[in-house]
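User: Before I run my own analysis I want an independent prediction to cross-check against. Here's the chain; please return only the structure tokens and, at the end, one sentence I can use as a sanity check.
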Amino acid sequence: MSVLMRAVLTITVICCGSFFIFDLKQSPSHVQASEEKEFVIPDKPLELTIRLKRVYMDGEESEETLTETIWAIEDFWAKYEKWQLVDMSEDYLVFEKKVNDISPLLKMNGYFGITEDGTLSIFNGKPEESDIIQSFFQIDVKKLESKQHQKLLQGIPVKTKEDFARVVETMKKYEVGKE
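Assistant: Structure tokens:
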């Protein structure tokens, strides 16, 4: 997270969340406007709604919402140092993280296959009976070996990010328009 974003958020937390309370006092013996600022430790912590958004390499996104109790801003930043702040308001913060893996949905039920027009796609279940999760590019089916074509029609399971990368890379050479 950038230093600017961290500063803006800290100021927002301080101003809107009464994270620090400023007690302004004037000394009655002085006529001048000298003010003394006193930091007071809050008697209750700040509570914020935090949304954690994960973006997987297969394009799937997941979001988790939680309430975070904040006593010390340093501890809060340390907890989310690997996340990027992407949105904020007085009531919530949204952090995002790019995950170098395929989504849990793909691991459980993802299959590569092709649509009727020959587009390489990932399905939620076997291709003939399921919805498309993500589409990639159109394949020149005539260039495919019949064995590869049959595998795509039946569905190729995607259990790991290596499976995902291998199938996409293998099928790229059959992409329509590639020579």
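Sanity check: The longest strand covers residues 46-56.
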